[in-house]
Design a protein that fits this description.
- By secondary structure, the protein is mostly helical.
- The chain has one domain.
- It is 66% helix and 0% strand.
- It has 5 helices and no strands.
- Helix 2 packs parallel to helix 5.
- The chain is globular.
Length: 92
């Protein structure tokens, strides 16, 4: 987390966020939400505190979706939600 905070100060959060997404995807690999609903909750709570303090301004060439998804939102949509969607597909 310290690295993420320092990288924000020096303007390289985009690359660090990519690294975080990659690491968290590995951590959540194989997660079954119905069997272990609280899995990863503490990690996500910690990252929420850090990432919600980072507002990313609009950059030239940035898509609307990238602009609207702030770092924590992106973490949720790219790491947690695929597992939720996959689970719901088989339950419903």
């Amino acid at each position: 987390m310290l690295i993420l905070c320092c990288s924000y100060m020096f303007g390289c959060t985009k690359n660090l966020l990519k690294m975080l997404l990659c690491q968290m995807k590995k951590e959540f690999e194989g997660w079954e939400p119905l069997k272990r609903p609280r899995f990863g909750l503490m990690a996500m709570e910690r990252w929420k505190i850090v990432l919600e303090g980072i507002d990313q301004p609009y950059r030239v060439g940035q898509t609307t979706q990238e602009f609207l998804l702030q770092p924590y939102d992106r973490l949720m949509w790219e790491v947690v939600m695929p597992h939720i969607r996959s689970t719901l597909r088989y339950v419903v």
